[in-house]
User: Fold these one by one.
Assistant:
Number 1:
Amino acid sequence: MSGRTRARACPERTCVGCRQRSARDGLLRVALIEDRCVPDLRGTLPGRGAYVHPTVACLELALRRRAFPRAFRTQGSLDTGELRQAVGQAAPHEIPHGKAVR
């Protein structure tokens, strides 16, 4: 051993809304169950995942860009009701310009 310590690598993912790279811990994983986009809070649901910042601004941008069907490689529209509810609960003080009030 060389005596050097290695810092654990923190995986990065890209938000499908704003296209910014962030640590995986700062993003919400979204999974596809049938035709529904559901939040995967534990990160254990099977299949492809898409990542989005848990803010209303990034979610709305992802929906406007139709990023979820593209990320999941599906055709048509997807139900995002559960996802909207989860993001709305995660960021109750969100204002339209994407800056959270603390």
Note: The radius of gyration is 15 Å.
Number 2:
Amino acid sequence: MSDSVPETEIPQDSVQAAEAPGAYDPAAPAPLNVPRTLTGNAEVDDRLARLADADHLATDGHVEVYEDVHQGLRDALTALDARPGPPAPTRHPTAAPQ
């Protein structure tokens, strides 16, 4: 009796299919084709359009794009709070009657 593991042959056509150009590669970049609806705010729409950059990157490159878009959207929201509103009414001191 032998303790060695018998060698198994791998069918040649399965090796060729794995090495064939155009074979499925789960790690290859692929567009997600997620529809993006315009918001009407140019700054926000530009940031959302940047998400398409992730379609051409490997998965490990998505984080940088997502963080950039997230920061841009946060900046846009912060800018809404910082925009000046209508001028505050001025209060005139009343003159004391003499």
Note: Residues 87 and 93 are 18 Å apart (CA to CA).
